[in-house]
Design goal:
- By secondary structure, the chain is mostly beta strands.
- Helix content is 13%, strand content 34%.
- The protein starts with a helix and ends with a strand.
- 14% of the residues are buried.
Length: 143
């Protein structure tokens, strides 16, 4: 089977043109799937290109986070409470101890409790309830 590189190049161009992360093309018995990873900007002196999305992570580009960060141990969906309508694990201003559950990250239908890495007072909750999170992404900040 010969792969038509022009189609792959064209699909890749569409990803950038329409700001997509994944695109799939099927014709008869041929199926081509093109995707790109979202890369966060780690060098603050690097120029931003037109496809960079500033509104998704403004704090990582413009502000330095102060305080102790609790990060997500896995990729998944973050939840503030054990079930819909239940009391949230943490609120801004609440004092917590090391090991207390601060959030649940659901991955592959498994609910993973995220413990606090230290004692402190919740300064900021960095993710919304039901928001997707990445490995290592800051989910709360403690004072």
């Amino acid at each position: 089977m010969k792969i038509d590189k022009k189609i792959i190049k064209e699909l890749s161009d569409y990803l950038n043109e329409f700001n997509l992360t994944e695109l799939e093309y099927t014709e008869k018995d041929t199926k081509i799937k093109v995707s790109k990873n979202n890369v966060s900007i780690s060098n603050q002196n690097a120029p931003l290109n037109a496809s960079s999305s500033i509104k998704n992570e403004p704090s990582s580009i413009t502000n330095k986070k102060s305080g102790l960060e609790v990060t997500s141990p896995i990729i998944g969906t973050a939840y503030h409470a054990p079930e819909p309508g239940a009391k949230k694990f943490v609120e801004v201003g609440k004092k917590i101890k090391k090991g207390d559950t601060v959030m649940i990250v659901e991955a592959m239908k498994t609910m993973n409790h995220v413990p606090s890495s230290s004692d402190g007072i919740v300064k900021e909750i960095c993710v919304e309830d039901g928001q997707p999170v990445e490995f290592g992404q800051t989910i709360i900040i403690l004072e």
